[in-house]
Amino acid sequence: MAQIPFIFNQLVSFIPRDYFEALVKKHNGNAYVKDYSCWKHLLVMIWAQITNRGSLRDIVASLRVHSDKTYRMGMGKAISRSNIAKANAQRDVAIYRGLAEEMMRRASRITYREETLDLISQAFGFAGFFAIDSSTVSLALHKFPWSVPQEGSGGVKLHTMYDLLRNVPAMCLITGHEERDQTFMEDYPYRDGCIYILDRIYFKTAGLYKIASTGAYFITRIKKNVCYETVAASEADGMHVLADETIRFTSRCTCMSYPDHMRLIKYYSLENNEVLAFVSNNFDLDAATIALLYRYRWNIEVFFKWIKQHLRITSFYGTSANAVAIQIYIAFIVFCMLAMASDAIAHKGSLYEFANMMSVALTEKVYLQDLIKRYDAGLIQETLVKQPTLFDFDKLPPIQPM
């Protein structure tokens, strides 16, 4: 009878080892390495991410407790602070960046999570919805002297494209935090038939024209100092949609970088009590739907908050630029791995719940499906035992925002 693998091994099975080893061979990652290979280092760092270890000493101590299991988990026996630190400082970042890119490609096949976007996609034939934004991770200059100082501190910036249908990252590029968000707009992998939702800081006409020229669509907010003229106007409802116009730019520079017409929508946001001006190259969707799609941009902000709170990308196990980049790319690998594992067993709960379960069950020998059933059974039992009273505040509906 086949032995049940550890939960850790079941999670790691979602990582394509053959692809990873090809990257290692390409970049000569295992040169002069006796035992602590790139694969073993990856597994140790995945363990550190899922269990949220705080330091190299913490990683080694947590694995020492399971010293009888580390070999069967694939990590081997050569786990030491010096080996981990040396690997973080010297292994080629391209190995882990390449694996992160492959994991994001594979995560793009999981089940849709956003039903409303799925319905819009089916109705209008869109190939996908993506948000583009960046997030800065601050670094102390006395620990990370290689970082370019900005306003008294260092940092790195995560330029990210986020799949809104599946709630997984689709691209990540790590740069210094001095790089402007617009710098890499024209280099992003845009796809025909997709909608890209961007913050106002990305209003760069050359970048927007690159999106339009690939057969894709964009939704962003227009800057206040842009010169344009109205070519045509559609009827607005006067309640939320205050204007729906076709415009063209009038200044020489913007005309050259974006020669086509653009759609301008002025929408009154009841939540913010302000008028928001959206621009898009899509003339088929109604104005209210475009405003609704822009609200989904908030999902990438939630992703940044989640990954900073639940994975290790704000404090680091090494102080070199190499160590910082490797740790961040492995965090993205772990996020995609968890999302793929959760989807494979059709887990209906949040990724937060799933990650919490995994963090305390990595060395258990039970199938993932059975672990989820055990967890769900515990929730049901807790619900049955708890007797609601007249003043049971847990039973009250949540307070809705005004």
Describe the structure.
This protein is an alpha+beta fold and 402 residues long. It has a domain at 208-281. It is built from 14 helices and nine strands. It has a nine-stranded mixed beta sheet with strand order 3-2-1-4-5-9-8-7-6, with helices on both faces. A hairpin with a 6-residue loop joins strand 6 (228-234) and strand 7. Helix 5 (81-90) packs across helix 12 and helix 6 (93-107) runs parallel beside helix 12. The longest helix has 24 residues, at 321-344. The model is unreliable at 389-396 (pLDDT under 50).
Compile the SSE list and pairings.
Layout lengths: L6 H6 L4 H10 L11 H13 L5 H9 L16 H10 L2 H15 L7 H10 L3 E12 L14 E10 L4 E9 L17 E5 L6 H9 L3 E5 L6 E7 L6 E9 L2 H6 L4 E8 L4 E7 L6 H9 L2 H13 L10 H24 L6 H9 L8 H18 L17
Parallel strand pairs: 1-4, 4-5
Antiparallel strand pairs: 1-2, 2-3, 5-9, 6-7, 7-8, 8-9
Kindly state the mean pLDDT as a whole number?
91
Helix content: 40-55%
Structural class: alpha+beta
Strands side by side in the biggest sheet: 3-2-1-4-5-9-8-7-6
Q: Note the main sheet.
A: 9 strands, mixed
Number of helical regions: 14
Question: Total number of β-strand segments?
Answer: 9
